[in-house]
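Box 3.1 — From sequence to structure: Heterokaryon incompatibility protein-domain-containing protein
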Amino acid sequence: MPSVFEENSDDDLTVNRTQISALDAQQNYLRLWTMRLLYHDDAGKVRLTEDLLNGNIPRYAILSHTWGSEEVVFADIKDSTGESKTGFAKIKFCGHQAQLDGLKYFWVDICCIEKSNNTELQEVINSMFRWYHRAAKCYVYLADVSTRTPNDQSSWIPAFWVSRWFTRG
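Predicted structure (token representation):
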């Protein structure tokens, strides 16, 4: 059988171009990329992992949410100063739910990305679909939907259908 680089006939050339296209797509998909994840340390504090390469990324949960005021950003997690911010509720929710689902690691865009680094920000934007696709679990945090009485659907279903999450860009 000819290699992907041999051109023995018109038929072989067609097969070879198809094989090359498949290899190009596979290499582009498998190229190196990095991400940071959140986890709880032994004291229960939320921490960031070091940069992880795509071959060494453990199973993780990911959070889909809307941004609000007082978000916990990358520096807040690094400096352990974000717990008093309103946005910490969604991080706490994601970490707790991940633990319930048997996952040690979780990812929340607002605090796992160093947004002041333009190169990193562009790489994250380009990798976002891949990160959601590879997540073991994806949670949605609806800040504008109350679940004080989860068994009483009449209390939260109307708010669910008009949640800001459905209208975000």
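Summary of the box: The first strand starts at residue 34 and ends at 35.
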